[in-house]
Design goal:
The chain contains 5 helices and 7 strands, in the order βββαααβββαβα. α1 packs across α3. The longest helix has 16 residues. It holds the Pfam family Acetyltransf_3.
Length: 166
């Protein structure tokens, strides 16, 4: 459960930092590049995503640069999912905004060695609260590749309603 009393504003950026029992969730920063590279270089992590596993740190640099550009333009916010016990990034979660219908798409990825331990459900539950209470979106949605059963389970666990299959 999100610990509301610990929400802080990131000065200058305006994106919240928030905590769960095991996680610290904050905007992605350049200091995350090595940990993020380790996650994004895993073929099992990127199997159902729109990019191939990162081979070079420059691949990750480009992705973080694009995340920061999209944030500065108000298109999306990308959060680092940091394990409190180690202070290492273990994944990321994002909100991509649609201002026309006041909605946001939820996206996420997680280091394979942390799968099936409830970390992503914990992070997404907190992100949902932030989306509605901080960003004031009216509608959230998530997409997944049909074959990605793990992602489907997270979406179902978070009580998203199935709208359609493409």
């Amino acid at each position: 459960m999100l610990q509301r009393q610990k929400i802080n504003m990131n000065k200058g950026l305006g994106a919240p930092h928030f905590f769960t029992n095991r996680l610290y969730i904050r905007p992605i920063e350049w200091k995350d590049i090595d940990d993020f590279f380790n996650v994004c270089s895993q073929s099992e992590v990127t199997q159902y995503l729109t990019f191939n596993p990162h081979e070079y740190l420059s691949d990750t640099h480009r992705v973080i640069e694009n995340m920061m550009r999209a944030y500065s333009m108000g298109q999306s916010v990308n959060f680092a999912i940091v394990l409190k016990s180690t202070n290492h990034l273990i994944g990321s979660a994002s909100l991509t905004f649609n201002y026309v219908n006041r909605s946001a798409e939820v996206g996420y990825l997680l280091d394979a060695k942390y799968w099936n331990q409830g970390y992503m459900s914990e992070a997404i539950q907190a992100l949902i609260e932030v989306a509605f209470n901080y960003y004031r979106v009216e509608f959230l949605y998530a997409k997944h590749i049909v074959e990605n059963i793990a992602s489907q389970k997270i979406i179902e666990k978070m009580h998203f309603k199935k709208i359609r299959v493409q």
